[in-house]
Specification:
By secondary structure, this protein is mainly α. The chain has 15 helices and no strands.
Length: about 300
């Protein structure tokens, strides 16, 4: 158990430092957005570019390794919609935003740092494959569902085109595409380019964690905390449980490999859930509360899952 604490304690300590620094005005709140933008638009694309440049397609692009993660996410998405709609009487659009808050994982700001610290570079090819397809698969699924659910939306064809354009402009996907192109072409990076991308990639962990902590100051618990708590339990417990069941008892994936996507699925809700809700002007309070609750509870749940996956 001390080994588990040694993995997660430094990670969440940096998150706490970011939160306290902004809370007590030791770091400007307006600077947090810039930190997260740097991580998402510059540092992480460099990391994904380097990873994809040397990835083994046959090993990492396997349904057995990444499929269970997405099956679990989509099942949680449906469960979240049904709970919000049937049990809490939220509107169709708000219910979709709720489901999205339950399924979209914080893969970059917390997933990568914790997985890398827990399992080292061995986990990264599979994790990068999931990170690279994460927004494309889950954002597209949620946008399609939202367009069908809401009654005041623009024509479906235009909405789909807009969604595809936003996905194509995603810096994470651009980094992956460039890395895959270089991989297929057999490119070896010049020393200067290699050093540049390495330095950028190494900035992710401290900047991302500090920025996430600072961003938590924006979220406050509101009246719908009960719904958010339900969604949080779906995200932190049900999602990784589904992935575990599919990968280990059903598909018989090696435990030492299966633990990578299982632990990633146990990470809290990502900030994109709030961005999604804000974009559609539905369920912003649900998304904000779910981010806050999952991030807080993940200090415990991530430690428990990490401990369970050591056996």
């Amino acid at each position: 158990m001390f080994t588990v604490l040694n993995v997660v304690a430094p990670v969440f300590a940096i998150v706490a430092l970011g939160y306290l620094a902004v809370r007590f005005r030791l770091y400007p709140a307006e600077g947090v957005k810039g930190l997260i933008t740097f991580v998402n638009n510059f540092a992480t694309p460099c990391l994904l570019f380097r990873a994809m440049l040397n990835v083994d397609f046959a090993e990492t692009f396997s349904f057995r390794l990444i499929g269970p993660y997405y099956i679990g996410a989509l099942l949680v998405f449906v469960a979240g919609i049904l709970i919000a709609r049937a049990s809490f009487r939220r509107s169709p659009g708000e219910s979709v935003a709720a489901g999205f808050s339950g399924m979209f994982t914080n893969t970059v700001l917390l997933g990568i740092p914790i997985l890398q610290r827990a399992y080292g570079d061995a986990a990264m090819p599979i994790i990068f494959t999931i990170v690279g397809t994460h927004a494309a698969i889950l954002m597209t699924s949620a946008m399609l569902t939202m367009e069908f659910a809401r009654r005041d939306g623009e024509p479906l064809g235009r909405a789909l085109l807009g969604a595809l354009l936003r996905i194509a402009q995603n810096p994470l996907l651009i980094g992956i595409a460039l890395g895959l192109a270089g991989n297929l072409a057999g490119i070896t990076l010049p020393e200067a380019v290699d050093a540049f991308t390495l330095i950028m990639a190494q900035a992710i962990v401290p900047v991302a964690l500090f920025g996430l902590g600072g961003a938590l100051n924006e979220y406050k618990l509101a009246d719908n905390w009960v719904l958010a708590l339900n969604l949080s339990l779906l995200k932190l417990i049900l999602h990784p449980l589904i992935v575990w069941v599919i990968m280990i008892p059903i598909l018989k994936v090696d435990h030492n490999i299966a633990r990578y996507p299982i632990l990633l699925s146990a990470m809290p809700t990502g900030i994109n859930a709030y961005i999604f809700a804000t974009y559609y002007k539905r369920g912003q309070d649900i998304a904000a509360n779910t981010i806050l609750i999952t991030t807080t509870l993940s200090v415990i749940t991530a430690s428990v899952w990490l401990y369970i996956l050591t056996f």
